[in-house]
From TrEMBL:
The keyword Transmembrane helix applies. It holds the Pfam family MFS_1. It comes from the Bacteria. It is a multi-pass membrane protein. SUPFAM superfamilies: MFS general substrate transporter. The chain crosses the membrane at residues 57-80, 92-112, 124-143, 149-170, 182-204, 210-232, 288-310, 322-340, 346-370, 379-403, 409-428. GO terms for cellular component: plasma membrane. PROSITE patterns: MFS. It is found in: Cell membrane. Keywords: Cell membrane, Membrane, Transmembrane, Transmembrane helix. It comes from Trinickia dabaoshanensis. GO terms for molecular function: transmembrane transporter activity. This is Arabinose ABC transporter permease.
Length: 438
């Protein structure tokens, strides 16, 4: 018997161990590498959770801030009588509290936006919130109307910082795919402020006194300031360098085109709504109370539009495409409301669709402007606010003259000029900017 035969007789190899039961032996370096990967994943997960929490806290601060700005801007419409008694002036003089605020906002916004591109946005927003709170307290205890008007101008300057800076911060610290939904959520805060401001002011004035609404807005801004102190310093913000182009962005058609488009369709849409009550009164013989109640349909639509901005962007694939849908709905609803012989329910549906279009369009347009303007986003977004106010101040007087003479069709033609040019610019912008459209 050969050696190999003997070996084969006395040696039988053990049955192979299944692969899934075999222990894998890694070199020490490999084990260390795997450990680092596991630790890195755990740290990344924790950072992602912390970042999401910070984002939510930031959105709460920004929503609260613009809520009280919106409430403060519109609450005076319910307080003109008590303010006239308090300061011993007629309603025309008291109206300067509204005009001075709007004028200061419109004039100062671009320059303060320019400044916000060159300092820390978070700190500037916190300073503006504190200034707005001081303004409210000052007006509540102002001894004369002149001092109250001066303080109201100061409040307009503070609000000219708060609103554009809030949206600029969103574009810098929130992930790109969530810009439209985040801006819609913050704009919803302003929508609630505009809708609830007059009602809250009226109730507080009746139950407590005319100072109460101003003190409430001051308290709200102080709370937002305190929460912001804990939240905003953790957020990185972009500060423009001395080499930044400044106002040279005005030569960039990719910025000025959507800027002008938004100012036209948004400003005209708001102008048409401001005069919609007169159309309802003339057509359905409604009293003031019922006209105010019917405007609730617009507010509901506005809130739905704010919340649906992100979803609309997801469905259409881009903000540019969503703006085409928004401006089309806006033109259709404004035209139908003013020209068609609709029953009251149909008019309310038009107002709701009208509000939805503006509510969804504003966040999308703001997202486009913030993305394209780069480090100039502060001044660009502030200029958008000013342009919106300029359009309102231009369209409302012209259209109101037509409505006063009973010519709804002429007023509608004024609206359609602004809406049509804005929609055409929006469509052209989408064709130029979207991939494969050239």
């Amino acid at each position: 018997m050969s050696g190999s035969g003997i070996a084969s007789t006395f040696y039988r190899p053990s049955s192979p161990v299944p692969i899934h039961r075999q222990r894998r032996i890694f070199p020490p370096e490999s084990r260390l590498r795997r450990l680092r990967i596991l630790i890195g994943k755990a740290v990344s997960s924790s950072e992602a959770i912390a970042s999401a929490d910070n984002d939510r806290a930031l959105l709460v601060v920004l929503s609260t801030s613009v809520f009280f700005v919106g409430a403060s801007e519109f609450m005076l419409s319910a307080m003109l009588g008590p303010l006239s008694v308090a300061f011993g002036k007629d309603s025309v003089s008291i109206a300067w509290l509204i005009s001075s605020y709007a004028f200061a906002y419109a004039i100062a916004a671009p320059f303060l936006g320019y400044l916000s591109d060159r300092v820390n946005r978070s700190r500037m927003l916190l300073i503006a919130l504190l200034s707005f709170a001081i303004d409210g307290v000052g007006i509540a205890f102002a001894p004369t109307l002149g001092i109250a008007i001066a303080l109201r101008i100061f409040g307009g300057l503070a609000s000219a910082v708060i609103i554009p800076t809030a949206f600029a911060l969103i574009s810098e610290v929130i992930p790109r795919e969530r810009h439209a939904s985040a801006m819609g959520a913050v704009m919803l805060g302003m929508t609630f402020g505009i809708a609830l401001g007059p009602a809250l002011a009226g109730m507080l004035t009746e139950w407590v006194g005319w100072q109460a609404p101003f003190l409430l807005t001051s308290t709200g801004c102080i709370i937002a300031f305190l929460v912001g102190v804990m939240t905003m310093p953790k957020r990185p913000t972009v500060v423009a360098t001395r080499q930044t182009r400044g106002f040279k962005w005005l030569r960039n058609s990719n910025v000025t085109r959507p800027l002008l488009a938004k100012g036209l369709w948004n400003g005209t849409g708001v102008s048409a709504f401001l005069l919609s009550g007169e159309v309802l009164r003339q057509r359905y013989q409604l009293d003031v109370a019922h006209v105010g109640m019917s405007a609730t349909a617009f507010g509901i639509g506005l809130g739905i539009g704010n919340l649906s901005a992100g979803k609309l962007r997801h469905v259409t694939g881009s903000e540019e495409r969503s703006l085409i849908a928004v401006t089309s709905l806006l033109i259709a609803s404004v035209t139908a409301f003013n020209l068609l012989p609709l029953p009251m329910f149909g008019a309310l549906l038009c107002l709701a669709a009208w509000g939805m279009a503006l509510g969804a369009g504003a966040p999308s347009a703001t997202t486009v402007l913030a993305e394209r303007s780069g480090r100039d986003k502060g001044v660009v977004l502030a200029t958008a606010e000013t342009l919106n106010n300029v359009v309102i101040l231009s369209v409302v007087p012209i259209a109101s003259v037509a409505l006063a003479s009973g010519t709804t069709a002429m007023a509608t033609a004024v609206f359609l000029v602004g809406l049509g040019i804005g929609a055409a610019l929006t469509l052209y912008d989408a064709l130029v900017r979207l991939p494969g459209s050239e």
